[in-house]
Amino acid sequence: MTTTHSAGIRRVGIVGCGLMGSGIAEVCARAGLETLVYEVGPEAVTAGRSRIDSSLGRAVQRGKIAEEARAEALDRLTFTTDLGDFADRDLAIEAAPEREDLKRNILMALDKAMTQPDAIIASNTSSIPVVKLATATSRPTMVIGMHFFNPVPTLKLVELIPSVLTGEATRQRIHAFAAEVLGRHVIRSQDRAGFIVNALLIPYITAAIRMYEAGFASVEDIDAGMVMGCAHPMGPLALADHIGLDTTLAIAESLYQEYREPLHAPPPLLARMVEAGHIGRKSGRGFHQY
Ligand code: CAA
After folding, report:
1. Which residue among 90, 131, 213, 241 is least packed, with the fewest CB closer than 10 Å?
2. β partners of residue 146
3. Distance in Å, CA 100 to ligand 1 centroid
4. Residue tagged active-site, from 39, 124, 147, 264
């Protein structure tokens, strides 16, 4: 069964099947959409597929979905290593690593590949101003920021970021799609680095890193302070590990490039940890060990 709705989006394609792409692909497939997932090579496809598989397994275990729904979602997913296969997609959601040059190249390739006249290209960028990506395409009116939160199946928010070039029809279609089909709560942001959530969250996380770097308190005490004292589900350093220190650094750099304020300057320790390959949960080590 496939879904039709006011946004008229039935076939979706997700570029990237990492932490975010796999979650976005999972929620699209669970929502009844024919979902094509691109990764760079066969190994990345295998890793991405197993990420989705185990998340769907967790959803069944937790009683969120029935075993039947899991099997149906898996049936709706196909994988490719060729962006040319996106020709018939109504919507592509780019979820590649947070690098402007990489994202621009992907959007350029999608623009060439996607032949449906109304096809929309959305980017899950966490912080890069959307207009910088839209100008890589010949259809900037049909490019929009659509930002999900990790873990995507659990956190029901989508930040919608129309650029100054995004058409009103595109904004309305993606809003309807996110709300009606994916069941997300939609918030709308101006096209400024970091948008709403990361413009607030990343300075908080980098303040915690500076606090630790200055010898002010231990990792455990900083995290316990915010979990036990403010009822946050995770402390700021555990959250940085969860997001990925590479992504956290990339977002801090985008914010600093936009605002040039000391508040946004990435702490040296964050840069050193990324250079060392200690990028958080996904590498087994960040501020905590996994
Ligand atoms: N599908 C549906 N639901 C699922 C699921 C799946 N695949 N996997 C887990 N869940 C559900 C669980 O059933 C559970 O729901 P209930 O509370 O209703 O039982 C819920 O998700 C939490 O799952 P767990 O019990 O396994 O995990 P937990 O309680 O230890 O919470 C956490 C883990 C959700 C990560 C929580 O610690 C949390 O919310 N942390 C903060 C995460 C956060 O702030 N994320 C945003 C980062 S910023 C970002 O993503 C944007 C960016 O650009 C950087």
Report:
1. 213
2. 160
3. 28
4. 147
d(CA 261, CA 233): 29
Rounded CA gap, 261 and 136, in Å?
28
Whether ipTM > 0.85 holds is yes
Domains identified in the chain and CATH numbers = 11-188 (3.40.50.720), 198-282 (1.10.1040.10)
Listed in sequence order, the residues at least 6 apart from 162 whose beta carbon sits closer than 8 Å to its beta carbon are 130, 144, 145, 170, 171, 188, 191
| Stated pTM of the model | 0.95
Lookup: tokens for 64 = 């969120």
DSSP 232-268: -SS-HHHHHHHH-HHHHHHHHHHHHHHH--GGGSPPH
How far apart, in whole angstroms, are the C-alpha atoms of residue 163 and residue 133? 10
Contact 49, 17 (CB under 8 A): yes
Model confidence over 210-230: pLDDT tens digits?
Answer: 999 999 999 999 999 999 999
Asked if 175 is an active-site residue, the reply is no
Q: Please, what is the end-to-end C-alpha distance for the chain in angstroms? A: 39
Question: Contact 261/236 with Cβ under 8 angstroms?
Answer: no
**Nearest CA owner, ligand 1 atom 17:** 154
CB 151 within 8 A of CB 159: no
| Distance from the alpha carbon of residue 73 to the mean position of ligand 1, in angstroms | 20
Q: Strand 11-15 relative to strand 91-94: parallel, antiparallel, unpaired?
A: parallel
CA of 175 to the centre of ligand 1 (A): 23
